[in-house]
Write a structure and sequence with these properties.
The complex is a heterodimer. By secondary structure, chain A is an alpha/beta fold. Helices cover about 35% and strands about 25% of the residues of chain A. By secondary structure, chain B is mainly alpha-helical. Chain B has 8 helices and no strands. The chains are: A alpha/beta, B mainly alpha. Chains A and B meet through helix 3, strand 6 and helix 4 of A and helix 1 and helix 4 of B.
Chain lengths: ~240, ~220
Protein backbone atom coordinates (compact mmCIF):
# COMPACT_ATOMS: atom_id res chain seq x y z
CA UNK A 1 0.00 0.00 0.00
CA UNK A 2 2.78 2.39 1.03
CA UNK A 3 4.79 1.40 -2.05
CA UNK A 4 1.81 2.20 -4.29
CA UNK A 5 1.31 5.57 -2.57
CA UNK A 6 4.98 6.36 -3.10
CA UNK A 7 4.74 5.50 -6.78
CA UNK A 8 1.64 7.64 -7.16
CA UNK A 9 3.30 10.65 -5.55
CA UNK A 10 4.63 13.04 -8.20
CA UNK A 11 8.40 13.31 -8.41
CA UNK A 12 8.19 17.09 -8.05
CA UNK A 13 5.28 19.33 -7.15
CA UNK A 14 5.66 23.10 -7.16
CA UNK A 15 2.73 25.24 -6.06
CA UNK A 16 2.48 29.00 -6.47
CA UNK A 17 6.16 29.61 -5.85
CA UNK A 18 7.35 33.20 -5.73
CA UNK A 19 10.94 34.33 -5.35
CA UNK A 20 12.28 37.84 -5.07
CA UNK A 21 15.90 38.92 -5.03
CA UNK A 22 15.60 42.36 -3.50
CA UNK A 23 13.08 44.17 -5.73
CA UNK A 24 13.60 41.82 -8.66
CA UNK A 25 11.05 39.11 -9.11
CA UNK A 26 12.75 35.87 -10.22
CA UNK A 27 9.72 33.56 -10.00
CA UNK A 28 6.09 34.65 -10.17
CA UNK A 29 3.49 32.15 -8.98
CA UNK A 30 5.08 29.10 -10.63
CA UNK A 31 3.09 25.86 -10.37
CA UNK A 32 4.21 22.56 -11.82
CA UNK A 33 3.75 18.82 -11.38
CA UNK A 34 6.34 16.37 -12.70
CA UNK A 35 5.56 12.66 -12.70
CA UNK A 36 8.12 9.93 -12.16
CA UNK A 37 9.85 8.97 -15.39
CA UNK A 38 9.29 12.40 -16.95
CA UNK A 39 12.09 14.27 -18.69
CA UNK A 40 11.08 17.90 -18.48
CA UNK A 41 13.09 20.63 -20.16
CA UNK A 42 12.78 24.28 -19.15
CA UNK A 43 13.51 26.48 -22.13
CA UNK A 44 14.00 30.21 -21.96
CA UNK A 45 16.40 33.06 -22.34
CA UNK A 46 19.16 33.79 -19.84
CA UNK A 47 17.63 35.32 -16.73
CA UNK A 48 14.16 33.88 -17.41
CA UNK A 49 14.13 32.09 -14.03
CA UNK A 50 14.97 28.51 -15.09
CA UNK A 51 18.01 28.13 -12.84
CA UNK A 52 16.26 29.79 -9.90
CA UNK A 53 13.39 27.31 -10.24
CA UNK A 54 15.82 24.36 -10.16
CA UNK A 55 17.60 25.85 -7.15
CA UNK A 56 14.30 26.33 -5.36
CA UNK A 57 13.40 22.68 -6.02
CA UNK A 58 16.81 21.65 -4.63
CA UNK A 59 16.07 24.04 -1.74
CA UNK A 60 19.37 25.86 -1.90
CA UNK A 61 17.24 28.93 -2.57
CA UNK A 62 14.30 29.56 -0.26
CA UNK A 63 11.17 30.85 -1.99
CA UNK A 64 9.30 33.81 -0.54
CA UNK A 65 6.04 31.93 -0.78
CA UNK A 66 4.57 28.73 -2.19
CA UNK A 67 5.12 25.04 -1.66
CA UNK A 68 7.70 22.61 -3.08
CA UNK A 69 7.53 18.83 -2.70
CA UNK A 70 10.12 16.32 -3.86
CA UNK A 71 8.80 12.72 -3.87
CA UNK A 72 6.12 13.85 -1.44
CA UNK A 73 8.59 15.52 0.95
CA UNK A 74 7.99 19.20 1.74
CA UNK A 75 11.48 20.55 1.06
CA UNK A 76 10.80 23.84 2.78
CA UNK A 77 10.27 22.01 6.07
CA UNK A 78 12.65 19.09 5.51
CA UNK A 79 15.31 20.27 3.05
CA UNK A 80 17.83 17.56 3.93
CA UNK A 81 15.32 14.74 3.35
CA UNK A 82 14.36 16.24 0.01
CA UNK A 83 17.98 16.63 -1.11
CA UNK A 84 18.61 12.92 -0.48
CA UNK A 85 16.37 12.20 -3.48
CA UNK A 86 18.05 14.74 -5.78
CA UNK A 87 21.19 14.93 -7.86
CA UNK A 88 22.24 18.26 -9.33
CA UNK A 89 24.51 18.84 -12.31
CA UNK A 90 25.26 22.40 -13.36
CA UNK A 91 27.64 24.19 -15.67
CA UNK A 92 30.04 24.47 -12.71
CA UNK A 93 31.34 21.10 -11.61
CA UNK A 94 31.21 21.74 -7.82
CA UNK A 95 34.48 19.79 -7.61
CA UNK A 96 37.67 20.57 -5.69
CA UNK A 97 40.56 21.19 -8.05
CA UNK A 98 43.27 20.24 -5.57
CA UNK A 99 41.76 16.87 -4.75
CA UNK A 100 41.94 13.82 -6.98
CA UNK A 101 38.85 12.39 -8.69
CA UNK A 102 38.75 9.59 -6.10
CA UNK A 103 39.13 11.99 -3.17
CA UNK A 104 36.38 14.23 -4.53
CA UNK A 105 33.92 11.37 -4.80
CA UNK A 106 34.97 9.89 -1.45
CA UNK A 107 34.34 13.27 0.15
CA UNK A 108 30.84 13.57 -1.33
CA UNK A 109 30.12 9.91 -0.49
CA UNK A 110 30.94 10.81 3.12
CA UNK A 111 28.47 13.70 3.04
CA UNK A 112 25.79 11.40 1.63
CA UNK A 113 26.49 8.84 4.35
CA UNK A 114 27.59 6.16 1.87
CA UNK A 115 30.19 3.47 2.43
CA UNK A 116 32.62 5.09 0.09
CA UNK A 117 35.18 2.62 -1.33
CA UNK A 118 33.14 0.36 -3.65
CA UNK A 119 30.59 3.02 -4.54
CA UNK A 120 33.30 5.46 -5.61
CA UNK A 121 35.11 2.87 -7.72
CA UNK A 122 31.85 1.91 -9.42
CA UNK A 123 30.99 5.53 -10.13
CA UNK A 124 34.45 6.19 -11.57
CA UNK A 125 34.18 3.12 -13.80
CA UNK A 126 30.69 4.18 -14.91
CA UNK A 127 31.91 7.57 -16.13
CA UNK A 128 35.09 6.10 -17.61
CA UNK A 129 37.51 7.84 -15.25
CA UNK A 130 38.87 4.80 -13.45
CA UNK A 131 42.36 5.31 -14.87
CA UNK A 132 42.37 8.98 -13.86
CA UNK A 133 41.08 8.26 -10.36
CA UNK A 134 44.25 9.43 -8.64
CA UNK A 135 44.88 12.50 -10.77
CA UNK A 136 44.01 15.92 -9.40
CA UNK A 137 40.96 17.54 -10.94
CA UNK A 138 42.80 20.72 -12.00
CA UNK A 139 44.43 18.67 -14.76
CA UNK A 140 41.09 17.45 -16.13
CA UNK A 141 39.52 18.68 -19.36
CA UNK A 142 36.07 20.28 -19.20
CA UNK A 143 34.52 17.04 -20.49
CA UNK A 144 36.27 14.95 -17.83
CA UNK A 145 35.20 17.38 -15.11
CA UNK A 146 31.61 17.17 -16.28
CA UNK A 147 31.75 13.36 -16.28
CA UNK A 148 33.10 13.42 -12.74
CA UNK A 149 30.41 15.93 -11.84
CA UNK A 150 27.76 13.47 -13.07
CA UNK A 151 29.38 10.73 -10.98
CA UNK A 152 29.21 13.10 -7.99
CA UNK A 153 25.56 13.92 -8.60
CA UNK A 154 24.47 10.29 -9.04
CA UNK A 155 26.69 8.70 -6.39
CA UNK A 156 23.73 8.27 -4.02
CA UNK A 157 21.44 6.87 -6.74
CA UNK A 158 18.97 9.79 -6.73
CA UNK A 159 15.39 9.49 -8.03
CA UNK A 160 15.54 12.90 -9.66
CA UNK A 161 18.32 14.59 -11.57
CA UNK A 162 18.30 18.37 -11.89
CA UNK A 163 20.49 19.76 -14.67
CA UNK A 164 21.30 23.41 -15.21
CA UNK A 165 22.88 24.05 -18.63
CA UNK A 166 24.89 20.82 -18.36
CA UNK A 167 25.97 20.88 -22.00
CA UNK A 168 27.61 24.29 -22.06
CA UNK A 169 31.30 24.08 -22.85
CA UNK A 170 31.21 20.37 -23.70
CA UNK A 171 32.68 19.07 -26.93
CA UNK A 172 30.59 16.95 -29.32
CA UNK A 173 31.72 13.60 -27.95
CA UNK A 174 31.12 14.53 -24.31
CA UNK A 175 27.70 15.98 -25.21
CA UNK A 176 26.69 12.78 -26.99
CA UNK A 177 27.81 10.73 -23.99
CA UNK A 178 25.86 12.92 -21.56
CA UNK A 179 22.78 12.75 -23.81
CA UNK A 180 23.02 8.95 -23.81
CA UNK A 181 23.37 8.83 -20.01
CA UNK A 182 20.28 10.96 -19.61
CA UNK A 183 18.32 8.61 -21.87
CA UNK A 184 19.47 5.62 -19.79
CA UNK A 185 18.61 7.45 -16.57
CA UNK A 186 15.03 8.13 -17.68
CA UNK A 187 14.70 4.61 -19.11
CA UNK A 188 15.29 3.33 -15.57
CA UNK A 189 12.15 5.13 -14.40
CA UNK A 190 13.96 8.13 -12.95
CA UNK A 191 13.05 11.75 -13.48
CA UNK A 192 15.04 14.52 -15.14
CA UNK A 193 14.45 18.27 -14.99
CA UNK A 194 16.80 20.24 -17.19
CA UNK A 195 17.18 23.97 -17.77
CA UNK A 196 18.73 25.06 -21.04
CA UNK A 197 18.61 27.70 -23.71
CA UNK A 198 20.33 25.45 -26.20
CA UNK A 199 17.99 23.52 -28.49
CA UNK A 200 20.67 21.47 -30.13
CA UNK A 201 21.92 19.17 -27.44
CA UNK A 202 20.70 16.29 -25.30
CA UNK A 203 16.98 16.70 -25.84
CA UNK A 204 16.20 13.37 -27.55
CA UNK A 205 14.87 11.74 -24.37
CA UNK A 206 12.75 14.70 -23.29
CA UNK A 207 8.98 14.26 -23.27
CA UNK A 208 7.79 17.47 -21.60
CA UNK A 209 8.73 21.07 -22.19
CA UNK A 210 8.07 24.30 -20.36
CA UNK A 211 8.83 27.71 -21.85
CA UNK A 212 9.91 30.08 -19.11
CA UNK A 213 9.81 33.83 -19.43
CA UNK A 214 10.24 36.54 -16.79
CA UNK A 215 9.76 34.14 -13.89
CA UNK A 216 6.65 32.41 -15.25
CA UNK A 217 5.96 29.18 -17.07
CA UNK A 218 4.18 30.63 -20.08
CA UNK A 219 3.66 27.47 -22.13
CA UNK A 220 3.79 23.73 -21.45
CA UNK A 221 4.11 21.16 -24.21
CA UNK A 222 4.47 17.43 -24.65
CA UNK A 223 6.10 15.68 -27.55
CA UNK A 224 9.38 15.12 -29.29
CA UNK A 225 12.19 17.61 -29.59
CA UNK A 226 11.72 18.16 -33.34
CA UNK A 227 8.17 19.51 -32.90
CA UNK A 228 9.10 21.62 -29.90
CA UNK A 229 12.12 23.19 -31.60
CA UNK A 230 9.92 24.98 -34.15
CA UNK A 231 7.49 26.15 -31.49
CA UNK A 232 10.30 27.45 -29.34
CA UNK A 233 11.77 29.40 -32.23
CA UNK A 234 8.35 31.03 -32.78
CA UNK A 235 8.12 31.72 -29.07
CA UNK A 236 11.50 33.45 -29.06
CA UNK A 237 10.45 35.58 -32.04
CA UNK A 238 7.24 36.60 -30.25
CA UNK A 239 9.22 37.55 -27.19
CA UNK A 240 11.67 39.53 -29.31
CA UNK A 241 8.72 41.57 -30.58
CA UNK A 242 7.50 42.03 -27.00
CA UNK A 243 10.88 43.41 -26.00
CA UNK A 244 11.15 45.70 -29.00
CA UNK B 1 26.70 11.64 15.47
CA UNK B 2 25.87 11.90 11.75
CA UNK B 3 26.22 15.69 12.04
CA UNK B 4 29.72 15.29 13.51
CA UNK B 5 30.71 12.79 10.80
CA UNK B 6 29.58 15.25 8.11
CA UNK B 7 31.45 18.11 9.79
CA UNK B 8 34.46 15.80 10.03
CA UNK B 9 34.34 15.10 6.28
CA UNK B 10 34.38 18.85 5.55
CA UNK B 11 37.18 19.41 8.08
CA UNK B 12 39.26 16.64 6.49
CA UNK B 13 38.66 17.99 2.98
CA UNK B 14 39.84 21.47 4.05
CA UNK B 15 42.88 20.06 5.85
CA UNK B 16 43.85 17.92 2.86
CA UNK B 17 43.46 20.87 0.49
CA UNK B 18 45.51 23.12 2.76
CA UNK B 19 48.33 20.63 3.15
CA UNK B 20 48.44 20.36 -0.67
CA UNK B 21 48.38 24.09 -1.40
CA UNK B 22 49.79 25.47 1.90
CA UNK B 23 48.15 28.80 1.01
CA UNK B 24 46.80 29.76 4.43
CA UNK B 25 49.70 28.41 6.49
CA UNK B 26 52.38 30.03 4.35
CA UNK B 27 50.74 33.45 4.36
CA UNK B 28 50.00 33.32 8.10
CA UNK B 29 53.52 32.25 9.03
CA UNK B 30 55.25 34.76 6.77
CA UNK B 31 53.07 37.59 8.03
CA UNK B 32 53.50 36.57 11.67
CA UNK B 33 57.26 36.21 11.47
CA UNK B 34 57.65 39.56 9.71
CA UNK B 35 55.59 41.36 12.37
CA UNK B 36 57.58 39.77 15.21
CA UNK B 37 60.83 40.63 13.47
CA UNK B 38 59.79 44.24 12.91
CA UNK B 39 58.79 44.72 16.54
CA UNK B 40 62.04 43.11 17.62
CA UNK B 41 63.90 45.95 15.90
CA UNK B 42 61.33 48.60 16.83
CA UNK B 43 62.01 48.48 20.55
CA UNK B 44 64.59 46.98 22.85
CA UNK B 45 63.10 43.69 24.00
CA UNK B 46 64.07 43.56 27.67
CA UNK B 47 61.87 41.72 30.19
CA UNK B 48 59.96 44.83 31.28
CA UNK B 49 59.11 45.84 27.70
CA UNK B 50 58.14 42.29 26.82
CA UNK B 51 55.86 42.12 29.86
CA UNK B 52 54.25 45.44 28.93
CA UNK B 53 53.84 45.10 25.16
CA UNK B 54 54.26 41.36 24.52
CA UNK B 55 50.65 40.18 25.06
CA UNK B 56 49.19 42.87 22.79
CA UNK B 57 51.85 42.31 20.16
CA UNK B 58 51.34 38.54 20.20
CA UNK B 59 47.57 38.70 19.86
CA UNK B 60 47.72 41.42 17.22
CA UNK B 61 49.99 39.11 15.23
CA UNK B 62 47.73 36.08 15.80
CA UNK B 63 44.56 37.97 14.89
CA UNK B 64 45.84 39.63 11.71
CA UNK B 65 47.59 36.47 10.57
CA UNK B 66 44.39 34.54 11.32
CA UNK B 67 42.44 36.99 9.21
CA UNK B 68 44.45 35.84 6.18
CA UNK B 69 43.37 32.27 6.88
CA UNK B 70 39.73 33.23 7.52
CA UNK B 71 39.61 35.01 4.18
CA UNK B 72 40.44 31.77 2.44
CA UNK B 73 37.91 29.64 4.34
CA UNK B 74 35.08 30.46 1.95
CA UNK B 75 36.76 32.14 -1.01
CA UNK B 76 38.23 28.69 -1.77
CA UNK B 77 34.70 27.42 -2.16
CA UNK B 78 34.04 29.93 -4.94
CA UNK B 79 36.18 27.89 -7.32
CA UNK B 80 33.85 25.71 -9.39
CA UNK B 81 31.00 26.98 -7.14
CA UNK B 82 31.85 24.14 -4.80
CA UNK B 83 29.96 25.72 -1.90
CA UNK B 84 26.78 24.96 -3.83
CA UNK B 85 27.93 21.35 -4.06
CA UNK B 86 28.13 21.29 -0.26
CA UNK B 87 24.77 22.98 0.10
CA UNK B 88 23.17 20.40 -2.20
CA UNK B 89 24.25 17.51 0.02
CA UNK B 90 21.63 16.17 2.44
CA UNK B 91 23.36 17.69 5.43
CA UNK B 92 22.58 20.37 7.96
CA UNK B 93 24.42 23.48 6.79
CA UNK B 94 25.66 23.83 10.35
CA UNK B 95 28.01 20.93 9.55
CA UNK B 96 29.62 23.13 6.87
CA UNK B 97 30.19 25.79 9.50
CA UNK B 98 31.59 23.37 12.08
CA UNK B 99 33.92 21.61 9.62
CA UNK B 100 35.30 24.88 8.29
CA UNK B 101 35.61 26.40 11.74
CA UNK B 102 37.61 23.43 13.05
CA UNK B 103 39.90 23.48 10.01
CA UNK B 104 40.59 27.21 10.50
CA UNK B 105 41.20 26.56 14.19
CA UNK B 106 43.80 23.91 13.37
CA UNK B 107 45.61 26.12 10.83
CA UNK B 108 45.70 29.06 13.24
CA UNK B 109 46.93 26.94 16.15
CA UNK B 110 49.74 25.47 14.04
CA UNK B 111 50.78 28.97 12.96
CA UNK B 112 50.52 30.27 16.53
CA UNK B 113 52.83 27.57 17.90
CA UNK B 114 55.49 28.59 15.37
CA UNK B 115 54.95 32.32 15.97
CA UNK B 116 55.10 31.80 19.72
CA UNK B 117 58.44 30.03 19.40
CA UNK B 118 59.82 32.89 17.32
CA UNK B 119 58.48 35.39 19.84
CA UNK B 120 60.24 33.52 22.65
CA UNK B 121 63.53 33.57 20.72
CA UNK B 122 63.42 37.19 19.48
CA UNK B 123 62.09 38.67 22.73
CA UNK B 124 64.25 36.54 24.98
CA UNK B 125 61.11 35.32 26.69
CA UNK B 126 61.13 32.29 28.99
CA UNK B 127 58.14 30.44 27.58
CA UNK B 128 58.58 27.01 29.16
CA UNK B 129 57.29 27.75 32.70
CA UNK B 130 54.18 29.37 31.20
CA UNK B 131 53.68 26.95 28.30
CA UNK B 132 50.61 25.18 29.73
CA UNK B 133 48.73 28.41 30.40
CA UNK B 134 49.88 29.96 27.13
CA UNK B 135 48.56 27.02 25.11
CA UNK B 136 45.25 27.04 27.02
CA UNK B 137 44.77 30.77 26.45
CA UNK B 138 45.79 30.45 22.79
CA UNK B 139 43.25 27.66 22.32
CA UNK B 140 40.44 29.61 24.00
CA UNK B 141 41.23 32.92 22.29
CA UNK B 142 41.65 31.32 18.88
CA UNK B 143 38.50 29.21 19.20
CA UNK B 144 36.44 32.31 19.98
CA UNK B 145 38.04 34.23 17.14
CA UNK B 146 37.61 31.54 14.46
CA UNK B 147 34.06 30.72 15.50
CA UNK B 148 32.99 34.31 14.83
CA UNK B 149 35.45 34.62 11.95
CA UNK B 150 33.99 31.64 10.07
CA UNK B 151 30.45 32.98 10.04
CA UNK B 152 31.64 36.50 9.18
CA UNK B 153 33.77 35.08 6.35
CA UNK B 154 30.64 33.38 5.00
CA UNK B 155 28.70 36.66 5.23
CA UNK B 156 31.44 38.73 3.59
CA UNK B 157 32.11 36.13 0.87
CA UNK B 158 29.31 37.45 -1.32
CA UNK B 159 30.01 41.12 -0.75
CA UNK B 160 32.10 43.32 -3.01
CA UNK B 161 35.65 43.64 -1.65
CA UNK B 162 35.14 40.66 0.66
CA UNK B 163 38.77 40.83 1.84
CA UNK B 164 38.19 44.35 3.16
CA UNK B 165 34.78 43.58 4.58
CA UNK B 166 36.02 40.67 6.70
CA UNK B 167 38.19 42.68 9.13
CA UNK B 168 35.68 45.54 9.22
CA UNK B 169 32.91 43.19 10.29
CA UNK B 170 34.95 40.73 12.32
CA UNK B 171 37.11 42.89 14.57
CA UNK B 172 34.30 44.70 16.41
CA UNK B 173 32.41 41.44 17.04
CA UNK B 174 35.50 39.53 18.12
CA UNK B 175 36.63 42.35 20.42
CA UNK B 176 35.53 40.68 23.72
CA UNK B 177 37.55 37.57 22.86
CA UNK B 178 40.58 39.63 21.86
CA UNK B 179 40.41 41.64 25.10
CA UNK B 180 40.02 38.44 27.15
CA UNK B 181 42.94 36.80 25.37
CA UNK B 182 45.25 39.83 25.76
CA UNK B 183 44.36 40.33 29.43
CA UNK B 184 44.81 36.67 30.35
CA UNK B 185 48.11 36.54 28.44
CA UNK B 186 49.22 39.70 30.28
CA UNK B 187 48.38 37.96 33.55
CA UNK B 188 50.70 35.03 32.80
CA UNK B 189 53.51 37.27 31.54
CA UNK B 190 54.09 38.54 35.08
CA UNK B 191 55.86 36.42 37.65
CA UNK B 192 53.94 35.21 39.64
CA UNK B 193 50.82 35.24 37.37
CA UNK B 194 48.51 38.20 37.90
CA UNK B 195 45.37 37.93 40.01
CA UNK B 196 43.07 38.56 37.05
CA UNK B 197 44.05 35.31 35.30
CA UNK B 198 41.14 33.19 36.62
CA UNK B 199 38.60 35.92 35.78
CA UNK B 200 39.83 36.42 32.20
CA UNK B 201 40.03 32.70 31.50
CA UNK B 202 36.42 32.28 32.71
CA UNK B 203 35.50 35.30 30.58
CA UNK B 204 37.00 33.57 27.53
CA UNK B 205 35.16 30.31 28.29
CA UNK B 206 31.81 32.11 28.53
CA UNK B 207 32.35 34.00 25.27
CA UNK B 208 33.46 30.81 23.54
CA UNK B 209 30.22 29.09 24.51
CA UNK B 210 28.26 32.01 23.03
CA UNK B 211 30.46 32.41 19.97
CA UNK B 212 30.37 28.74 19.03
CA UNK B 213 26.68 28.13 19.73
CA UNK B 214 25.17 31.19 18.04
CA UNK B 215 26.83 30.78 14.63
CA UNK B 216 25.85 27.08 14.60
CA UNK B 217 22.22 28.14 15.00
CA UNK B 218 22.42 31.05 12.56
CA UNK B 219 24.50 29.57 9.76
CA UNK B 220 21.50 28.33 7.71
CA UNK B 221 20.26 31.93 7.44
CA UNK B 222 23.69 33.12 6.31
CA UNK B 223 23.88 30.69 3.39
CA UNK B 224 20.25 31.02 2.44
CA UNK B 225 19.51 33.23 -0.58
Amino acid sequence: MRMRTQLQTPAVRVENVEKWFGRTSALQGVSLTVQRGDFLVFLGRNGAGKSTLLRVIARIVKPNSGKVEVCGVDVLRHPEVGRERLGFVAHSSYLYRNLTAFENLRFFAGLYGLRSGDRVQLALRWVGLEESAHRRVHGFSRGMQQRLSIARATLHDPDILLLDEPFSGLDFEASELLGQWLQDFVANGKTVLMATHDLEQGLRAANRWAFVDRGKIVRELQGTDTVVREQYKHFLKEKKHDFS
Amino acid sequence: MIFLRQAGAIFWKDVLTEFRTKDALTSMLLFGLLVILMFHFAFEPDSLETERYGPGLLWMTFIFAGMLSMNRAFTNERENDSLQGLMLAPISWGAIYLGKMLASLLFMLIAEVVMLSFFAVFFNFDLLPRLGWMLTISLLGTLGFVSVGTIVAAISMNTRMSEVMLPILLLPIALPVVIGAVESTAAIFTDPPGEGLAFWVKFLVVFNIIFVTLPLMLFDFVLEE
